[in-house]
Write a structure and sequence with these properties.
- With about 210 residues, the protein is of the alpha+beta class.
- Helices cover about 35% and strands about 25% of the residues.
- The chain has five helices and ten strands.
- The strands form three sheets. A five-stranded mixed beta sheet has the order 6-7-8-9-10, sandwiched between helices. A three-stranded antiparallel beta sheet has the order 2-1-3, with no helix packed on it.
- It is globular.
- About 25% of the residues are buried.
- Bound molecules: zinc ion.
- The site of zinc ion has 7 residues, from loops.
Length: about 210
């Protein structure tokens, strides 16, 4: 009898953890881009640069920049305007990482504030979600200075190893792009900060309000 109850408890606990995991995975894996591509011209369609997406953007022209499948434009009251895959998930060779809402807010904040916070960015072109096909990565924010020098600003909030930081940095470096890591939450830990200091001479922490 005792065993029976114990097993029941174990099964319930297991079911609960699986249920949580599926919710967690679903939420974390959402692909919620701000940028689409024009299906004929290939032009970038960046929602962060549009005042009124509903009237200014024809969603029939918008496709996923990574796989070319049709996008739906979502404009609601709570979430920022964004694109979503119509029907299926994105299947593309790009090594994208699941993004939390905090990650999207953080990269948007960087894109909007780099120029006002740091005078050296005054003349630069600053773009969000820039795909870099040679390395199959999407830079969170890409800065191009008038001299042609490029900088990828990467927001990292979830846990990451030094090996992964190094690998992603190396990928950008092969394209001649410097990386600026903005570490927050679970990524803003001593070993990662130390690695940034040793590699770049500084470490940047992103403080997020809950
Ligand atoms: Zn796609």
């Amino acid at each position: 009898m005792v065993y029976f109850f114990m097993w029941k408890a174990v099964i319930a606990a297991l079911a609960l953890s699986l249920w949580r995991k599926s919710l967690y995975t679903k939420r974390r894996a959402a692909f919620v881009p701000f940028v689409a591509e024009h299906k004929e011209t290939g032009e970038r369609i960046d929602l962060t640069q549009v005042m009124n997406p509903k009237t200014e953007i024809d969603q029939e022209q918008c496709v996923c920049p990574l796989c070319g499948k049709p996008f739906t434009l979502r404009v609601g009251l709570i979430r920022r305007p964004h694109f979503a895959h119509r029907g299926s998930e994105c299947q593309s060779p790009y090594r994208t990482h699941p993004e939390s809402a905090a990650h999207r807010e953080a990269k948007l904040f960087l894109m909007q504030h780099l120029r006002s916070e740091f005078p050296e960015y005054a003349g630069a072109t600053i773009q969000i979600e820039v795909k870099l096909e040679p390395i199959w990565r999407v830079a969170d924010v890409l800065v191009t200075f008038p001299s042609g020098w490029r900088q990828a600003h990467e927001v990292q909030l979830s846990k990451i190893t030094i090996g992964e930081l190094q690998e992603r940095t190396n990928d950008y470096t092969t394209m001649g792009i410097d990386v600026v890591w903005w570490l927050g939450r679970d990524a803003d830990k001593e070993p990662n900060q130390q690695w940034c200091i040793e590699t770049f001479g500084y470490s940047l922490s992103l403080q997020l309000t809950p």
